[in-house]
Write a structure and sequence with these properties.
The chain is mainly alpha-helical. The chain is built from six helices and two strands. Helix 5 packs antiparallel against helix 6.
Length: 144
């Protein structure tokens, strides 16, 4: 089950924070098809946000074909965004965790690491061409 975190100082609309957290959970395999999202009431109790904000996020996820509401039962995941390369046991993820650990040991904070990752993604996009760059940009925006 996903536990939502809301950052009121991020500058990102609260409903988009919820949408992005669900997408990230889908990409990482934390949520899978058939899993039930927390009820709006449970999210409101855990985060102290307006119920309409939760419902707006869930409607957006439904519009994108990622979840479906089932009256009287809840909202359920309909498809995954996960890829084997992003799984918890993948070599790419292990390499990234090792790199982030090295960056933290070198004194870099979260924002520094994110800036480096964004720069590396932009550099890689210029090397792989416009078609790939658009895909990478969309994926980055989904997780921010």
């Amino acid at each position: 089950m996903i536990e939502f975190q809301v950052d009121r100082h991020s500058g990102v609309a609260t409903y988009l924070q919820l949408v992005n957290q669900v997408k990230q959970a889908l990409r990482l395999g934390v949520l899978e098809p058939g899993d039930r999202l927390p009820t709006a009431r449970a999210v409101v109790e855990a985060t102290a946000i307006n119920p309409n904000t939760v419902l707006k996020a869930y409607r957006e996820l439904e519009r994108e074909g990622l979840v479906e509401p089932r009256p009287g039962q809840g909202t359920f995941v309909t498809r995954s965004l996960s890829r084997p390369e992003a799984a918890a046991d993948s070599p790419l993820r292990a390499d990234l965790v090792a790199w982030v650990t090295r960056a933290h040991r070198a004194g870099l904070g979260r924002e520094d690491v994110l800036a480096l990752v964004e720069a590396a993604l932009a550099e890689a996009a210029t090397r792989t061409g416009p078609a790939q760059a658009g895909t990478e940009r969309t994926q980055r925006e989904d997780t921010t």
